[in-house]
């Protein structure tokens, strides 16, 4: 049975509840004195928007049941049986389309509601009119099997007129804006950067979708370099070879100050404005125009949606190399136009200016991955008009995405990708033949420069990477952020959000964090969590300035249980607690392993790195056994939760003057774990009234497995001091290294054992030169810090 | 590179072309005298509907290329270079969004168009104004990578006003009906059947979606018992055990006349009409309301769409058992209402009548599988108003679906399903608690009766099955039918359409057949074939009565090549040719095999019948080797095509007094075959203007395989004479059996070998009692008829 977890319902007094029922015309002033049964009948009939006549409503009532004593609901309304909670619940489960469960439960709606985790209570209680009004209000806020609150279900079924005016219920904005008559317009914002060196600010294309309304509307802006398309073939052609050896770096002494990047304001030449128009002229029709589901949800609720791919993409000027200050500035400039603080033109040449005169100048940025990354980056500029950011699976530091601790480290699943490859993927002027013929040579030169700067040879942190580390400027974030991340996201790894979160927490504010058990996915179409409702509450407050307790209501941290399906908990903190440090061995003990495989095995794993990882995670790794050391803790006597960073301190040697160490923390013990990709439930969520349906998804349990990787980390043995300095390393010299694995929040079940795998090459993430390097670890001199919760 | 195959383009004279260009406002009367280059510039600018101003159009022209001699298309339009076909082609590939291929081809649009199989010619030719008009007309009919003709792409990008009036181009209706303002209404048709025995015709619910227009509109009606939902759990609970032995049938003498079903007209009691209204009152909003993609395509083109689940479903009266005369009648009655010949009411009780006063009374029925089946069945009633049927993967004879030659045979993939199971799946009153409480007992009695009638014990054909064999009434089909079927559809197997097709061909008319290489799928979203265009031409003729050469243009038979991807051929006939008969051995030769497996293997294959089939198809079947006889033909010296039915004549014995024989014809030889399920191309097809997008699909080649099953067949050795008579069978007695395998149309490559596998239990399709029965076949006395094409 499905299970709902709602955190976005705000508490209302009974009087407020009744007033809200009247405001949405569910209740008339003069109905407050009606007998409970008469009022209940009116409520039910009003919950049938497709049945506008008494006759059609009666058909529905005849087919459904109020209680087992009456032949059907229509008969119930003509007999003397009083209205109990049980009876209301019975009708509600039928309105919620839970008939099958209702019949299976021998027509007991209370039992069905409890089974789906809805707060049904005391079924026998006979209701007064007052009780009924309060109860009906609450029911309207309950979640249903189609992924929406019941009031939103009624809205999507036609309860409200689509009159393009704002309405709220329980603090959340309702879908009362017509999505069948949207305005789609394109403008060209003059940015503050001049990356093509023509003396003028690079123009960037912005596509806006907004309702036809006389109200000034807020804007959800998604900065997506992917928005104008992808160059898949060019991307693949540029992938770097990862089957290369780790090479020695000449030892040096470098301080952070020597490589630190300083921000400087951008100021490009401005075009002279030739005139002003009230409305944009260019439009767009491509399917790609509404890629982000959560944007559709808000579009029907009166929020405009804007997309820009930024500089260095189709219909924009300039060049960009992934996350650069110039790219971020161009996205910030879009916010400035939306907030009335920058010029945009109707096309690329006429210099006719157009203002966002329809905007209420309050903007949120949203999006996953690269999109959320740029939202975070723009937040660090402190730009006026940006009121909040919802950043999902976002990068906060590009070094951590393509590098780590002095190593070239691929995002999980993407060996060979790098800053230049990602820039190539989105350099969509490549799809504009005349432009491409002109720009091809300069783009190649630009890319060559990027390749040099990103430096795959040393893998070190540098001024280039420092410019793309937004954590440096967290103190300039003046708004409340919402962060969403998967604890099994090995593409954008959890440290990306962890460090941002720690920094935000340190400086105060009312930030919110959602940690789910998925990989690199969106959760806004998840069935068991009311994520969209919570974001509605949040943006209704932040962008429409409605006083709705959003800040106090949305939990600071919502964590998805890693053992129980469809279960979400409210937590107070992620990390920051006291860790338990334990030596890896109580008595002297050396372990060793050799990195290097037969040609055959090496070929096999280079072409199938997922197979390598699953083989490596097995309790006995067979042909891989010699390539790893495995440390096992005693079985847990009680279930405990890891919360934060696991840190390793290792005393070790390499047989060469180069070396790396990789580590996976593993949960050993037979169990069903949640799949990292949610499954389709078969239902679709309506994002308005018959608008932009998306599949409703839920995390389900996988088959029993003997193990589950909890977290992972990597380090270059020449980067023991820092990511920017090369330490010396001599063959067989004992060195001490400390490094953190990716932060986690993970419950280990009683009886399970924690294990640590130490090894060299990671076929999915590191370079893989198949060098035969022998490593030794002195376990007694090595330790692990485990952030167990008390 | 993708490849287009267009058969839906009609030939026009130059004058007609020019007149049509003017009718769609692509050309003005006074522009016919313009210089070619001036006119070409106008055409290109008109092909940019999102760019309404000269300034925005110039931006586009600056980004694209006309020829390599000019910096960009805008520069080209200001210089003296004449317009050649090459230049038109260059711009066209950019308008078609084939930029990547264009750049890869060093800016040669001609080469790109030829590569995608579009009829580009003589690139060097300098064009006159007349040439240009003719060429531009043709280009508007060409297919593009988004699965639409270019004119439809322009329409979906806003070229035409959505003014709810009909427009045709090249004989096909354009999407000029507003899909953002559709009428959705529900009525209750009073059918002519009274299956719940209440003295009144069963009401059936009909949902209509139609454009807001003053034109009378035709209707696409889909009869879908699935439309009101599915009872998955109840379906699964009712599945029959297939792990049961084959039992002996007492020999008898039965003639067809003894079991023949005779149709009788239905006439149920009629409700008194209490009044009449102009418009329906009830509406509907569920996502399920637009399930069929092709319906969406036509909705934007001014065709109404109607759905009904028929009797024995939610919001309808009565009971039905899969394909019954009563179910068919109730669907026929819906056509009668749409054609103005039957009463419908606004709800189930008020008796207020409502007419389809918006209908032009010309109806087509469409749908796949059960839906297409009912469309075919209704066609055999000859009902007035039904003008054509598009039946995809449809059943023509239910006996052939759940039985065959005296055996219980499951549709591929669905062991244990049967007539009662399918009825249970769609008995959606089960989801209406009050109704279910009242009807549960009668439904169980009805189902018990069905179970008795369908008779899983003998598997024989009977009066019950004869009533559900629509092939009996093909002579009553007075309309032209379109049939679509997958030659790898082992769910609804190819004989279903073959027999219908043979019967239709025998009686004349202008029927059309599409045979693809997929399994049980729709092809309307396939990239390489212009199926939707052809259906547009067809229905524009049949339902809007436009004289557009549809009958002559749509090929009689379109066959997808089974060896070359994205290749479709026009054929004249399927089957009916002369077959080559060959003995299975030139000299005396007995082969034998024993049906029966170890418990372990038996368990394995009962839980994974796909594994059984793939093991069985291997050249050496290992643990299954003793369960089969394999006959191999000499390798083919040239590529040859099988076209029709393969028929086996076997002289054989069973070691028991029961027995069955199964046969698979196999193509042995290493080759890449097409996957039976098309793959997503990544593009979506717009079904109007930003309406109901669906993924664009294409068949792709699978990995190399050593074998491919071509066709299959099964027979009960006690049904040598007919499916309705039990023949005697004595242990080890030689008997002669003849039976056809499923019809095929399959090209066997030179060097490949045809093979025949003869065996007993088919783990996917027959019952599987694991009886140890030994079979012998006398190959010299056995033969195979192979329908090779000359």
In helices, the fraction of residues of chain A equals 25-40%
Uncertain segments of chain A = none
User: Would you tell me the overall average pLDDT of chain A?
Assistant: 97
Based on the structure, what is the oligomeric state of the protein chains? Answer: homodimer
Number of helices of chain A: 23
Shape of chain A: globular
The CATH homologous superfamily of the domain at 580-786 in chain A corresponds to Galactose-binding domain-like
Largest interface: A-B, 57 and 57 residues
**Percentage of residues in strands of chain A:** 15-25%
The strands making up the biggest β-sheet of chain A line up spatially as 8-3-4-7-5-10-11-14-15-16-17
CATH topology (fold) name of the domain at 580-786 in chain A: Jelly Rolls
How many angstroms separate the termini of chain A? 32 Å
What is the number of strand segments of chain A?
A: 31
